[in-house]
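Subject line: Sequence and fold of a protein, written as structure tokens
Area: Proteins and the way their chains fold up in space.
Start of record: The labelled sequence and token lines come straight after this line.
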Amino acid sequence: YLKQKGDSVFVETKVNIIEVLTDSLDIIKQALAIADNEDELRKFAIVHTKRNEVKTNNGEFGFFSTSEFGEIGKIAGTMEVGDVFGPLQIDGGYSVFKLIGKENLTLDENSKKNIDDLKLDILYNKAVDKLENKAVDLAEKYGVTINEELLNSLQLNNLQMLVYRYMGFGGKILAFPYSSPFFKWKEKWEQKKKDLL
């Protein structure tokens, strides 16, 4: 694994975000409305976020590894600076965050913490690889086809929207949970078809 990353060093991505974490979907809606303006979002986060460390750190997390903070770290690692993501339902409530910094660090492999991070990365990559291979096997078994011409002809609009599900007792929750994108199996599937030819 280290040889794939580089001999005795590997690159770790660290990110910095401004986050609003709350139980209120109305506050999430307001945060999304002002998310393009970093200064306004920062002030809003200081007032409304549930994370005390974010309140005391001028509305931001400070740089952290993409292997930290669960889904927030994973998603932030795939974003570009200035991108906004949310709402994401996590244990503490709903999170909306904006990526304000991203850097790649070269670290020495001898550090105990780095080795622990490597173990987590390897386990995660193995699990994803297993799921992708299963998807490829199922695509072959059931003869899946993808009509790329039709797919490319679709007209898409980027809309930020929030869908609520109203509960019988007067409460409301997000109508659907977030799930991570799962599409890399298609590349493996196409490569496997090419190899068979």
Notes: Residues 128-196 form one domain. The longest helix spans residues 112-142. The chain is about 45% helix and 25% strand. The chain has a mean pLDDT of 84.
